[in-house]
Amino acid sequence: MPTRAAQLLLALTLLAAAGGTVTACESGRGAQSRTPRDNPVAKARARQVADAWDGSEAARAWRKGYYPIGEAVQLPEDAFHDEADKQAYESRSFTLRGRLPTAPRKNGLVRWQSGGSLRLPLMEAQQAYEAVAHGGGKGPQLHVTEVKPGEMTLATSRGPATVPAWLFTLDGYDTPLKRAAVRSSEPPTPPIESFAEGSSATLQALQRLVGTPGDGRNVTVAAPHGACDDGPAVDVLETGGSVVLSASVVGTKDGPCTAQLLSERLTVKLDRPLGDRVLLDAFTGRPVAYGRP
After folding, report:
1. What's the burial of 125, exposed, middle or buried (CB within 10 Å: 0-12/13-18/19+)?
2. Are 208 and 289 in contact (CB under 8 A)?
3. Most CB atoms closer than 10 Å: which of 28, 82, 89, 92?
4. Using 50, 70 and 90 to split pLDDT, how confident is the model at 97?
5. Measured CA distances, 61 to 57, 65, 123, 169, 253 (Å)
6. CA distance 120 to 65
């Protein structure tokens, strides 16, 4: 019978091979990270990742790009009026009253509050609408009465930015639902390979970045663990140019266990705000991706 650590590794391997997304329950609302076990292998790997990124061409490219760490959709200020409207949004049940703009919009300008800007291709209104709506259904629905171009402000790896957006007026709401009209930049090629296969029992890949609440001294991530351990832990290595997170599981024991992949949100405290430092995953050697699982 496989050990519990091996079961977790098998589940992660099968998930990666299938190219699928995590469908297991994601628990926690940013609980404080557990204390990781002393792990010389993980610490050495984190240092290798930091040394490879700090001062690299990849880091320079990252700081010039547009990488959101906030939701691409912002709800109306008075959302939602009732449970029916909330259910309609969560099930993406929308009906469109009228036409979507068809005028070509080639490029839009992203402007950072700290200075600097970047022109990026704009998403058409049809694409933006399809990103938030599946169409009408039998249950509750939200009715879109107007769609027009506008702007929104969201968090990015370079601080707050004003970005082009499509504004969807919803029947009964005073302010629109906003959907960012530009996609993130293509991430740079990392200057280091992923963690060596066969050593991953001591280190796990983070699933996603959930956010950086407050003043940027806290980073909340989703980390994997198995059904028969005490949960995940995340260690941190801070340098002048990067913050490297090393995920592992604690409390694993030998013996039979179900091959089940779970996810938990953990909040890691930093010595100073993240700022424009690159947030890296020690396992993959890549920036921790923001977004839904």
Report:
1. buried
2. yes
3. 89
4. very high
5. 6, 6, 23, 37, 43
6. 10
